[in-house]
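A quick aside before the break. I want you to see a complete sequence-to-structure record at least once, exactly as it would be stored in a machine-readable document. Don't worry about memorizing anything.
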Amino acid sequence: MSGPAGPDLSAPVLRGLAAQAARLRERIAAGERRIGWKIALNDPRVQRALGIAAPVIGHLTSATILAPGETHSLAGATRPAIEPEVAVHVGEEGRIAALGAALEIIDVDLPFEDLGAILEGNVFHRAVVLGPPVAGVTDLGGRTARMTRGDGEQTTIDVAQAALDPADVVLLVSGYLEAIGDTLSPGDVIIAGSLVTAVPLSGDERVALEIDGLGSVSLEIASA
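That is the input. The structure line, written in tokens, reads:
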């Protein structure tokens, strides 16, 4: 997938991101630890429906990080789904220090046409599990991903075709953060957008993701 030309800095997006940033500051003040960022709404069809010109961003904190293999309960979720992603680990001066695998759980719990509420609510983010970072890897060419679910169903993905280029991911997030008065920091992790259309979850299954050369990660899903 080719990368976007740059962030969408239209007034509705910036208002939503400013509201999201205010919530993030409150959460950090309450004791959560900043982990990084997420690329969201990277499907061009979704962007057209919402009237935006590029993917947007959300944030990751210690409150929603799961340990590999951990069980996550869907209790209270409205429309939960899982997304296989590439994780970009940021080093000094915004360089890519490592890549890895990630699984994000989202919950589409807001009206899909309300862009401001979606951005303020952290773009449906519910939880994420990060695989071990693989240092020194910066490109996705020739890599295949396999997401396997509890019933044995496997989805095979051409990563270079489906993913944003990691360098474009860093530039996109940096552009948004600059616009709202923030910046990338060494140690930040960016989950780079779903490699497939979000897969609905109903609970009680194991989901695993393996990416050639980038390792694997898994988690258990419980319905309650």
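Two observations worth writing down. The CA atoms of residues 75 and 224 lie 5 Å apart. The two ends are 36 Å apart (CA to CA). We'll return to this after the break.
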